[in-house]
From TrEMBL, chain A:
<dbReference type="Pfam" id="PF02597">
    <property type="entry name" value="ThiS"/>
</dbReference>
<dbReference type="InterPro" id="IPR016155">
    <property type="entry name" value="Mopterin_synth/thiamin_S_b"/>
</dbReference>
<dbReference type="InterPro" id="IPR012675">
    <property type="entry name" value="Beta-grasp_dom_sf"/>
</dbReference>
<protein>
    <submittedName>
        <fullName>Sulfur carrier protein</fullName>
    </submittedName>
</protein>
<dbReference type="InterPro" id="IPR003749">
    <property type="entry name" value="ThiS/MoaD-like"/>
</dbReference>
<dbReference type="InterPro" id="IPR010035">
    <property type="entry name" value="Thi_S"/>
</dbReference>
Automatic annotation (TrEMBL), chain B:
<dbReference type="Pfam" id="PF05690">
    <property type="entry name" value="ThiG"/>
</dbReference>
<keyword id="KW-0808">Transferase</keyword>
<keyword id="KW-0963">Cytoplasm</keyword>
<protein>
    <recommendedName>
        <fullName>Thiazole synthase</fullName>
        <ecNumber>2.8.1.10</ecNumber>
    </recommendedName>
</protein>
<dbReference type="InterPro" id="IPR033983">
    <property type="entry name" value="Thiazole_synthase_ThiG"/>
</dbReference>
<keyword id="KW-0704">Schiff base</keyword>
<keyword id="KW-0784">Thiamine biosynthesis</keyword>
<dbReference type="InterPro" id="IPR013785">
    <property type="entry name" value="Aldolase_TIM"/>
</dbReference>
<dbReference type="InterPro" id="IPR008867">
    <property type="entry name" value="ThiG"/>
</dbReference>
Amino acid sequence: MKITVNGTAQETAATTLDALLIELGYGEAKVATAVNEGFVPATLRPEQRLNEGDRVEIVAPRQGG
Amino acid sequence: MPTYYDTEIKSRLMLGTAQYPSPAILAQAFKRSGAGIATVSVRREAGGERAGQAFWDMIGDLGVHVLPNTAGCHSVREAVTTAQMARELFDTNWIKLEVIGHADTLQPDPFGLVEAAHILTDDGFQVFPYCTEDLVLCERLVEAGCRVLMPWGAPIGTGLGLNNIYGLRSLRAHFPDLPLVIDAGLGLPSQAAHAMELGYDAVLLNTAVAKAGDPVAMAQGFARALEAGRLGFEADPMEPRDMAAPSTPVLGRAFT
């Protein structure tokens, strides 16, 4: 299945957001997520199904002004 | 000292965390200035990089309150989703709400700002809106639930200081009890002192400190200017006048 992660198109075998994060090595990382511009809380990631063409954002704390 | 949403902060300085020469200099700037709030952001994490965790640990060591922003968001949807992600990451209801309306000036989109402020307040956020000094916009933001306003002094990163003294003074007069923070555009400590003399509660700086040749000294300079300006405001300054008035007693002058 082809999806977009942080603006980059890629193939994934994951069918849920939770599985995608593990596949990409974010298992225990301090990240927050959105799918198709909508926030997905950490607690709901296992239930968040991924579909062809989904746009996933994975963000972390950073410097800011 | 200013109180934001029932939390008193023992400093009138909010300091950004971006663009410093090194994390050590950032930490020193906070320590020497006594800044009470650090602004932070959320950005895309590259695979396996774990830079977010390292940054989070460093901010934790500063021992200050954290104010996440929605910097760079140009739409209500982006800003709301970014705020929600920031709340989960930083474990705070505080959000510095930025909805950018123009690429050249980075000035707020007032219409999107009010809409986003309504949505986020209803969702339990405590919103710190980055706004202009427009009185009607600020009234709408207060109606939306904002209990602090953060008007710009000048566009972000310009260092031009306070561009509209009349507007800022007017805002202070209309909202005597609301915390008002100058956010963006300051470059020099004297400008921060001026903001204090106008009765503002705090300033938020980033570029002015981080891009100074000596960020630590500049942070300290701003902290002292804030203290000096605030003392001047509280001391009830004299009224300016056009004609000279001798300060030395006239009575008893020799040769008269």
